[in-house]
Each structure stands twice: as C-alpha cells, then as structure tokens.
Structure prediction request, 280 residues.
Amino acid sequence: MNTPGSLTYVYAVTHRTGPPGDALTGLHGIGGAPLRLLPPLADSNDPAPRTSPASLAFVAGDVPEQDFNETALKNHFEDLGWLEYVARTHHDVVQAVAARAPVLPLRMATVYQDDHRARQALAAQQDVFSRRLDQLRAHTEYGVKIYLTPQAAQAPPAAPTPAAGPGKAYLQARRAQRHSHDAVYRQAEQAAETIEAVASRHATQRVRHAPQRGELTGSQENVLNDAYLIPDDQAGPFQAAIADAAQRFPDLRIEVTGPWAPYSFVMPAPGPTDAPEPPP
Prediction:
C-alpha cells in the first residue's frame, strides 16, 4: 500500500517467500523507506493459475512523487550528488537481496504510479523473469577492466644524436613517444585477447560494455570493460586465472570487480556483445 503522495519504486525481481523476505527485515530503501515484496497481480481470466511464476515478487518501496515524476527525474539526472545517492541505495538493496537468493536487478529509477500498476507489470513479464531467474541461479557477475596508466604510455627520454639540433631532438623525442604509445596499445589488445580466452574457460556469458571515461577512471585510460557471468563454484578459479594472466602485462592495470548481482545479464543478450536494458 502506497503512502499518500508517493510512487512505487522497484529495485529488483526475486522470489516472494523465504530468504528474500528475511533480507528485507530492517533494510530500507531510498529516503529511508521500508521495503516490501509485491507479488504479480492475479489474472482473473486465467482458469489455471501458474504456481512457479507466481512465486516471484518485485522488491519495492515508496518514493516521493515530487522527486520521481517524469519532470523531476529529468532535472535530478543533472544532479550528480542525487544520482550517486540513488544509485548507491539502489545497489545496496539489490546486493542485500542477492546475498540471500537469486535476483534480477532492475535499472535505477524504475517507478510505477502505485503498487497495483507495478503488480500488473510483473504479471505481464513473470514468465520471462521466472525463466531468467532459473538460468542465473548459482551464478554471479564479475567485471574485468584494463587500464593504460599514464606512465606506461610515456616513452623514456630519447638521447638525441650527437649532431642533432633542438628541432631534430624534439622530433626524435616525439617519434619515440609515439612508438611507445603504439606499443602499449598493442599490449592492451594482446591482454584483451588473453583475458577473453582465460575467462571463457570459467564463464557462461560475457557482455562487453563501453570503456569508462571521465571521473570514473581519473588519469588512467580504460580500454576494456567486460562483464562475465560466473558459476559460483568457478568464482575462485576465475579470479586466480585472471590474476595469473595479468602478470604477463606489467605495463597495464588489470582489475577484477565483484561479486555483483547480475546487472549485465538480466535479460538474455540478443547478440554476442551487447545486452539490452531490463524492461521496467
């Protein structure tokens, strides 16, 4: 039941009984609102209700309508502080549920007019969600990122030839720097191929995201940003194999992130590289 002046914010899809309900005890969402499990709305025209999909539920909570209506969201998306808070809270809720049970994270700021509308939406997609939850059971997402460090991309000062003047010495230095830069990129390409080959021995799926830019990477250039879906019994061997492969490329920083709820694998990917956003 919604409080007056609120919308229903949905964090994830999970099962409606057992560990997920326990995970919500004492857990709060955006604005400190308590969380609840919303089952799909029953279809009165269905003569044979299905029991398995009906065991699903949205993890939901109230948010102020004045902050999450369409106009307000457009304005808030320009506020980095607000975005960081909502994204972090959304993530914390998803991770808390994922620690107890299979979960399908939904995209940030998935809102409905009320619980009734949210339950209708879940009922319309419950078969898809149920199949995907079964496929993701006992799997976890890990990220693998490759960075070029500023030091690796810089060439050591080139010693000019004895007869070189200032102009020629400058050109020699620039040529050496360019060759060093190209060598680091070639090393990054080799590292990406090696990481993909190593990870494929343990992963069931991969999604290639666009490299990160700006404040997320600082002075380092992110050239690979992949996500892998790893069976839980392969998590240790996967991380060890990536760490071993990273030692072959000392001029690069290769980072493994996770474990995460399967954000990148909510819906089956239509192709080998990109996955669509999960439906609201």
Q: What stands out?
A: The chain has two domains: 6-137, 140-152+185-265. The chain has eight helices and eight strands.
